[in-house]
Amino acid sequence: MNEKFSIGQFSKKTGTTVRTLHYYDEIGLLIPELTASGRRIYNNGHLITLQKILTLKFLGYSLEDVKEFLQDESWDLRDSLTMQREMMVQKRKQLDHIIKALDHALHIVHGEEKIDPAIFVTIINGIQDEEEHKKWLNKVFPEHIVDGIYDIPDDQQREIEKVFAELIAEIKKMVQDKISPDDPKAIQIAKTLFELASELFGEDLLNIILSVNEDDIDEESVMPNPLNAEEEQWFKQAMGHFESQERKNK
C-alpha cells in the first residue's frame, strides 16, 4: 500500500524539518506531488528517496552531488564511495592538523599574558604547513635527515616551541631596549638558542642545516620569520659573538 502523507506528517515521520523539505523541493532534490489545491503530498517512494539523501549526506556528499547520483541510473557506487573515502581521509588529516595546532597554541599561551603575533604565527604555520616544509626540505637534504628533523614526540615539540617563543620574545625586548649584540645577555640568548637547536637536531645535523646556502632557500617554502629585519640582524651579530667566544674557549 502506497501511503500518502502531508508535509507535516512526513516531517514527523522522518525527523526532517518542514523547512528542509521545502528546500529539497525548491532545488529539485525531493519533489512531492501536488494536490489540486496546491498541498504537498509525499508517499512511500519519497521515504526511500529521502533515506538515500540522508545516507549520502552522512557520507559527506554535497546536495549537488546527491542530486546527480539520484538522477544517474548508472551510478557506480563502488568508485564513488572509494573517492569519497579518500576525501574524508584527507579531511580527517586536516582536522587532526587543526587540533594539533590548537593544542600547541594553548600550550604556548599558557601562563602568558601576551605573546607577540609574529612568534605565534611562525609556530602555528610550522604545524599548518608541515607537509609543504617537508617537501622543500627534501629538495635540500637527504630524506633520512628530513625524517630526523620531524621525528620528535609531540609533547617534546610543544615544550621546545614554548621555550623558542620565550627566547624570541627576549630577543625582541633586547633590540627594543637597545642592548648591544655583544652584551653577555645577548650572547647567552644566542647560546641558548644554539643549544636548543643542537638538542633538537643533534650537532652533526645542525651543522648540515647551517651549511645550506641562503640563495638555495625558496622564501615561499619556509615558515614566516618571527624577527623583523633589525631583530634578525641583531641576532646574527649576537650569534657571531657567541661563535667567536666558542672558538676562543676551544
Question: Describe it for me?
Answer:
This protein has helices at 7-14, 18-26, 44-58, 63-71, 77-109, 117-128, 130-140, 143-150, 154-176, 184-201, 203-210, 229-249; strands at residues 4-6, 33-34, 40-43. By secondary structure, the protein is mainly alpha-helical. Helix 5 packs across helix 9 (154-176) and helix 9 (154-176) runs antiparallel to helix 10 (184-201). The model has no long low-confidence stretch (mean pLDDT 81).
Largest sheet: 3 strands, antiparallel
Please give the alpha-carbon distance between the first and last residues: 95 Å
Overall 3D shape: elongated
Oligomerization state? single chain
Strand content: under 5%
Low-confidence stretches: none
Helix content: over 70%
Give me the secondary-structure topology.
Elements: E1 4-6, H1 7-14, H2 18-26, E2 33-34, E3 40-43, H3 44-58, H4 63-71, H5 77-109, H6 117-128, H7 130-140, H8 143-150, H9 154-176, H10 184-201, H11 203-210, H12 229-249
Antiparallel strand pairs: 1-3, 2-3
Structure, briefly:
The protein is mainly alpha-helical and 250 residues long. The protein is 70% helix and 4% strand.
Descriptors:
mainly alpha, elongated, MerR-type_HTH_dom, DNA-binding, MerR family transcriptional regulator, 3 strands, DNA-bd_dom_put_sf, 250 residues, 3-stranded antiparallel β-sheet, 12 helices
